[in-house]
Amino acid sequence: MRDKFTDLRKRKVEQRKIDEQQEREEELKRNVDAFRQKSSESAAQEVLQLGENLSREAIENIVAKAISDNSPDLGLKSLIDTQKKKILISQTRADKPFADIIYQMLLMNGAPAEDIIYTNCDDQRSRVPDGFHLYDYLRAFFVDSISTQKILVIFITSENTKRSWGAITEVGAAWITQVDHKIFNIHPFRPEHPLDNNAVWQTTNREEPTRGELWVTPLDADILCEKIEAVCGEIGYGKASRADNHAHLQTLVSVRES
Prior knowledge:
Layout: H1 2-50, H2 56-70, H3 76-82, E1 87-90, H4 96-108, E2 116-117, H5 134-143, E3 152-157, H6 165-177, E4 181-186, E5 202-206, E6 214-216, H7 218-235, H8 242-249, E7 254-255
Parallel strand pairs: 1-2, 1-3, 3-4, 4-5, 6-7
Antiparallel strand pairs: 5-6
Helix pairs in contact: 1-2, 7-8
């Protein structure tokens, strides 16, 4: 009974957070509309007062000033951005051992568990709250948002990916919304378009194509660290040094020559 009460309370807390987020989104939308109207009206008034013989530079300066004068109306955007989830780890349950490694490396580089969505995570703070449908939850935070900050997706790809409808759906959603993404791949699978397969992806080896012990070469260990540092640096976390990342990675996975 106590566990059920605790789960219900946590669900209510999470629902309240989402409701507050949506209320701020609506307020920001109203502010954006007001900002556009006030900026255009003040710019037009200034042009009328100064006359018709204005240079292009003068008009641009008037518009820039109108935008600057009215921009405080958009102050709510920074608050919305700070409360959004930042990273989605897209994976299959069969690839959880590798996804766990990536998750731990993100934490090592300053990413808070609360900023990450990882559906199979052992830490409740990163899972989709109980009672919420995954794709409704994602849409509420990222697709329906007026904020320009987009989620960054980490794709864990392997032979298991093509057997997972959920993973395939997330690939399609990332392409449609044009979000930035990084690929961490398990050999012998080869990522294909619409994933950015022109960029260098990180490769991890496995005893068998769909299961078994994981291991990486020294080169791929370094690429893994590099990509994690890039993700965390891009978002603004205080990333660890390469030496510290190498040392931590070796506690999570075997590093050896092929």
